[in-house]
Amino acid sequence: MYRTMSQSTDLGVLLLSPDGRQVAFNVVNPEGMRLLLTVPAPGGNPRELYRSKLDLGVRAWSKDGRHLLVTQPDSKSGKKQL
After folding, report:
1. Would the pTM of this model clear 0.90, i.e. be above it?
2. Which of 11, 24, 48, 57 is the most buried (most CB within 10 A)?
3. What is the DSSP secondary-structure string of 10-62?
4. What is each CA distance from 3 to 7, 45, 48, 54, 57, in whole angstroms?
């Protein structure tokens, strides 16, 4: 399912969760879609959390590691939103 990750053209910032168990990151797949993914830190299958045609920025984990702060440009103005 995620075999295309190895063919991605753009890998975003990697963020380790506060408990060190998960890594969040974004990639651009060959079709140009931006994917927000998490993967277990020791390795394993990635889990897709979000997919968009617009740019994504992974900024921070919540202190409890249950939420991610992500920015994305507004589709009309282009300004980044949380």
Report:
1. no
2. 24
3. EE---EE-TTSSEEEEEEE-TTS-EEEEEEETT----EEEEEESS--EEEEE-
4. 8, 10, 13, 22, 22
- Who's near 22: CB < 8 A, 6+ residues apart? 16, 38, 39, 40, 41, 65
DSSP-derived letter for residue 70 is E
Alpha carbons 79 and 72: distance in angstroms, whole number: 8
Contact indicator for 37, 22 with CB cutoff of 8 Å: no
